[in-house]
Amino acid sequence: MKINRSGSAAWSGGLKDGKGTISTQSGALDAYPYGFATRFEGVPGSNPEELIAAAHASCFTMALSMILGEAGLTAEKMETSAVVTLEQQDGGFAVTASRLSLKATIPSADDETFQELAAKAKANCPISKLLKAEISLEAELLN
């Protein structure tokens, strides 16, 4: 099976004075604005790194749901956040890390099994495989 999903970006102007928009195939984002200030200066608005963070958090959580099911477990609730780090390096910028943080309520799960299954999901979710950055995970079982 092969699935293709798409996103697009448009840009007008120079790096610092230009303006761009981001769109997704699903329409979840439709010409949503982004620019230098939203990416590098903390101005409210979108940027590529927050989109990667959302993609990584959602992909990891779905992968863990599948892995839990294979182990005969079902999550009552899982909340995952991701922080993607963009750092200036020689020759430009690079995404250097994605830090996942998970809080989960999984009846019948013990912490050892939970940590093992969460690590498996971190290593095997498609977005983790895509990223060449260091990927870390902090997982907390709330039972």
Automatic annotation (TrEMBL):
<dbReference type="InterPro" id="IPR052707">
    <property type="entry name" value="OsmC_Ohr_Peroxiredoxin"/>
</dbReference>
<dbReference type="InterPro" id="IPR003718">
    <property type="entry name" value="OsmC/Ohr_fam"/>
</dbReference>
<dbReference type="InterPro" id="IPR019904">
    <property type="entry name" value="Peroxiredoxin_OsmC"/>
</dbReference>
<dbReference type="InterPro" id="IPR015946">
    <property type="entry name" value="KH_dom-like_a/b"/>
</dbReference>
<protein>
    <submittedName>
        <fullName>OsmC family protein</fullName>
    </submittedName>
</protein>
<dbReference type="Pfam" id="PF02566">
    <property type="entry name" value="OsmC"/>
</dbReference>
<dbReference type="InterPro" id="IPR036102">
    <property type="entry name" value="OsmC/Ohrsf"/>
</dbReference>
